[in-house]
Amino acid sequence: PMGPVVQDYDKAKALLKEAGYENGLNVTLSSMDVEPNPTIAQLLKEQCAPAGINIDINIMPESMYWDQWTDVDFGITSWAHRPLAIMTLGLAYRTGAPWNESHYANAEFDSLLTQAEGTLDIEERKGIVNKIEKIMQDDGPVMIPRWNSLILGHGKRVQNLRAAPHDHLMAYETWIDDQAV
Q: Of 13, 29, 30, which Cα lies nearest the Cα of 21?
């Protein structure tokens, strides 16, 4: 388990200086105008400012963002659930993948991902994915500020309606029971 996050602005400034940004770093953060993205962008701007990271926020209509989301310098994107985590990893982080918006490239990651994709034994695949997760934690190609909570409610007449983790209503096996009270 991770402990509380401690913001060390002096260390952040030292790392920026070491990287050649002794006067701070100016970046543009692009996102779509769909909440909570603008709020996340504003919070990130406020949290980074004391470290010398100055963020200009570029909020645009959703359709405009999706036309350029893989080309922005720094962006906020929502990813929907896939049945297996390795499906998202292949789409979003494999070197050269069309949806690799962070332009992440790591040969060891790619090799382990290919291995995990071809491993049917769940326990064996978990071990491989564990290595992948460690690489991603160390490399930090993405920041995940939140996870959605999904709630599904319905009346007693609605039968066999189940929540799905990908935020889509799966009602193809659902029916209404006129006898239910």
A: 13
Q: Can you tell me whether residue 56 is helix, strand or coil? A: strand
14-32 CB burial, b ≥16 within 10 A, e <16 = eebeeeeeeeebeeebbbb
Q: Which two tokens stand for residue 54?
A: 């100055």
Give every residue of the chain whose pLDDT is below 50, as ranges. Answer: none
Q: Which two tokens stand for residue 97?
A: 């993948």
41-82 pLDDT, tens digit per residue, is 999 999 999 999 999 999 999 999 999 999 998 999 888 777
For residue 38, what is the enclosing H or E element?
Answer: helix 37-48
Pair of tokens at residue 8:
């060390």
E strand map for the chain: 25-32, 53-60, 158-159, 175-176
pLDDT value for 171? 82
Could you identify the residue written with the tokens 């790619």? 110
Cβ pair 116, 129 in contact under 8 A: yes
The single residue listed with the structure tokens 């319905």 is 154
* Angle subtended at Cα 33 by Cα 28 and Cα 36, rounded to the nearest 5 degrees: 95
